[in-house]
Specification:
The protein is an alpha+beta fold. Helix content is 30%, strand content 30%.
Length: 240
């Protein structure tokens, strides 16, 4: 039988190999870097929610005047300057009223001077104390048995009202319309959309007088209180 010799066995028996191990270098220490604690999902969600809430609050518009608005009915007499305050005439406004309109609760009445009555015919005025340029007022002119053409009426009103002149001059749009009340009386309706303000005007004739009711507001207040201001505008009517 043939015998198989392993070469490795032969080498092992006849050759001795000496191996010298080089000592391994000592391990190098890595510098310790502190890792900031990670935000927990709960804290992150809370922070995001708070940020969103703050953004919503800042972006929210101021509360509308129309929310839960109540009104009081004003009785106007269209008295002449000589009869201002009841002197020389009837001081009971309700009994001698020639017109009425609604006033939002909380608005203040502005005392109309005899000079205002005598120059531009202002008979009454109310304003929002939080923004005095948000207001309604009424003027009247004698000697108008009936309404003239719409454009002529607006021009005549502007002659004695500088603010109205400026508003018309800078207006982006001026619309005109007319309506009738339950008695068939005709009212001209004007809406003026200016650069910084908005105006609603209602005009009618009765008792040989021309009555003009104005509702004015700066654009921010108009955008906020539009429903209330339109209600006030539409509430105007003559009596009798």
């Amino acid at each position: 039988m043939a015998t198989i010799f392993s070469p490795s066995a032969v080498l092992s028996s006849s050759t001795t190999t000496t191996t010298t191990k080089t000592p391994a270098p000592p391990p190098q220490l890595k510098p310790y870097l502190a890792t900031p604690p990670s935000k927990s999902p709960l804290n992150l969600a809370t922070t995001l929610a708070a940020t969103a809430l703050a953004t919503t609050i800042l972006a929210a518009a101021p509360p509308s005047l129309a929310a839960d608005t109540s009104y009081k009915l004003y009785y106007g007499t269209a008295a002449s300057a000589a009869n201002y305050g009841g002197y020389g005439g009837n001081s009971d406004k309700k009994a001698s009223a020639e017109y009425t309109y609604d006033v939002p609760e909380g608005w203040k009445e502005k005392l109309v001077s005899k000079i205002q009555k005598g120059t531009n015919g202002t008979d009454s005025e109310f304003y929002n104390p939080k923004k005095k340029t948000e207001k309604e007022y009424l003027t009247f002119l004698l000697g108008f048995p009936k309404l003239a053409p719409k454009e002529a009426i607006l021009n005549n009103l502007a002659l004695s009202d500088v603010d109205l002149q400026d508003l018309i001059a800078s207006a982006e749009s001026v619309t005109t319309d007319e309506r009738k009340d339950d008695k068939g009386q005709v009212y001209y309706v004007y809406e003026i959309d200016g650069i910084g303000a908005h105006s609603l005007i209602s005009v009618t004739c009765a008792n040989n007088k021309l009555y003009a009711h104005f509702v004015n507001a700066p654009t921010p207040e108009w955008n906020r209180d539009q429903d209330t201001l339109r209600h006030v505008h539409e509430s105007f009517k003559t009596v009798g």
